[in-house]
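Hey, I was hoping to borrow your eyes for a little while. I've dropped the whole record in just underneath, so have a look:

——
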Amino acid sequence: MSMSVGSDNGGEDQVMSEINTTPLVDIMLVLLIIFLITSPVVLKLQKITLPEETNQVIQTKPENVNIVVNKDGDIYWNQKKMRDTNELFDFLKVEAVKVPQPEVHVRGDKEAKYESIGRVIFTTQRAGIQKVGFITEPPDKM
């Protein structure tokens, strides 16, 4: 950076056409330091312990209900295709009154839309099923 102290033109006043950026840089450095000091204080979160991922092997019982949702959104009840969620609701209502109540296992294709799975979960909830689980593939071990 250059700085002009005096004129060497014999006293003529000249207009300075350069922008002095030194104060701007100083302010930006001060703001950066303030931000770095205060950001950990602002981001104080409640200390919690998040649950660990666990894969449990499930013993398939004959009374468990298996619902499959394929990538097209078709719903299958133990290999029988359902017309819609109303038919699924009728089947689940019968199962909900059994003692002990069977578990419902939902197997959804990984390319199935979330809406299709959500409709099945909502239908099981409406029918009064207490235990609903998702069946997934275990992750690859590297």
Q: What stands out?
A: Strands lie at 65-69, 75-77, 80-81, 104-108, 132-134. The mean pLDDT is 82. The first strand starts at residue 65 and ends at 69. The chain has three helices and five strands.
